[in-house]
Amino acid sequence: MRILLAILICTVFVGGTALYLQQRARNKGANKFVRKKAVDVYAVEITATLRVEPDAFSLEKFSMLLKLDGKPLLERKDRVEPGTVLRIEPVLGIVVGENEFFFEANPPDDQINQAHAVRVRIFRDGECIAEHSLWSDPGTKLATTFRLKVAAVDGQLMDHGHAH
């Protein structure tokens, strides 16, 4: 009886795994994206609460860096004082759907043991559509990612991860 029960459990487990793999293979094309550029004019504003300056010990001598989906939007190599508003307009490369930003800023060596914040605001046609407060932990430079989801407008449709 135990042998039959063991064979039944193994058959159910192996059969279920085989069905799962078959179904997964059939749905393989469902995760493909057609990315369309957003048609509006986008801008990004960055306001730091800290002084940023190039890291003396880094091979890359930048004080502040902002990337969109891995492509640089802003790379400052000079000192930026607290409260300075940096505006990037137009921001090219924003697409309908998910967009990932990476931000990095180097605090001065004498302030590395403090927490720091940067406010990032994203505008579409002059209207603020997203605002992020980015924080560093004491003892580290500010380096983080954040996402922006752009909804389809003006005849562009989003349907199950596909843009039409």
Structure in words:
It contains one helix and ten strands. The protein has a four-stranded antiparallel sheet, with no helix packed on it. It has a four-stranded antiparallel sheet with strand order 3-2-5-8, with no helix packed on it. Strands 9-10 form a two-stranded antiparallel ribbon. Helix content is 15%, strand content 37%. With 164 residues, it is of the alpha+beta class. It folds into two domains: 30 residues; 109 residues, no CATH class.
Brief synopsis:
The chain has 1 helix and 10 strands. It has one helix at residues 2-26, and strands at residues 42-48, 64-68, 71-76, 85-88, 97-105, 117-124, 127-135, 142-150, 158-159, 162-163.
Task: Give the DSSP E fraction (strand runs of 2 or more residues).
Answer: 35-45%
First and last CA, distance = 57 Å
Give the beta-strand count: 10
Residue stretches low in confidence (pLDDT < 50, at least 5 long) are: 155-164
Largest sheet: 4 strands, antiparallel
Give the SSE string: HEEEEEEEEEE
Compute the average pLDDT: 82
Total number of distinct structural domains:
2
Instruction: Please state the structural category.
Output: alpha+beta
Envelope shape = elongated
Adjacency order of strands in the biggest sheet: 4-1-6-7
Helix content: 10-25%
